[in-house]
Amino acid sequence: MTKPSPAxxxxxxRSATERAPLPNRLVRLLSEARWLxxxxxxxxxxxxxxxxxxxxxxxxxxxxxxQVDNLGGRAGAWLSDxxxxxxxxxxxxWCVLLLRAVWNGYRGLTRxxxxxxxxxxxHGQEAVIRGVGFAFLFAGSVGLEFLRMYTLPxxxxxxxxxxxxxxxxxxxxVAFGFTGATLFLLLLFGLGFSLFFQxxxxxxxxxxxxxxxxxxxxxVQRYQYRQDRREGVAAAVKRDEALHYERARNxxxxxxxxxxxxx
Length: 263
Known about the structure:
With 263 residues, this protein is mainly α. It has helices spanning 10-17, 24-50, 73-87, 92-114, 126-148, 162-197, 201-249. The chain folds into two domains: 22-199, no CATH class; 200-245. It is elongated.
């Protein structure tokens, strides 16, 4: 009969299964480093797309130049050419995605480490909904760019909308026709914009309507003010004329002194 092996010490078991949490200072430094890296990536994307030059060597073509004009260097010229070739002008939505992540990260860091507040609770499907919204937004954007902006004289490695825009726009055109495809892609774009940015179009319409009402009311008040001022000026002129007329009527006749006759 074998003896049972002695149980391992409790401290050893805990150290093997549990790890001590990182210090708060180290967590903050790592969070800030990740945020700075994301901010640098977003700024780099903006710079390479802004300084894109078709003459620079890129993914879609080969060229030999003494100096690259792209602010991101040869890597930036190659990457910007690839993005614009595949997505057209809609490649800028990747910059929007990165900058939105930078802004959300900044808010989270400020709330957690500066204000020392708990993070806002997020629904489990919220990230999925935002991702689906961005996909709808992006698909509608590249499709509309291909269908409606093909005549723009722009400097792109390919037609507006890129390869993806041609695929989506052509498929929508075949399925729904030119006008129907435009309406479908507009619907897709609007739905994706609402889901990604969490914007209610009804709330936007109400705010626009409220702003229009304020502007109309301002013009009406200005018009009424001018009308009242004109009527006041006209009434003052009439009053002055009537007063002048009354004064002229009430003026006494001049006293006439007759010369006395000589005795």
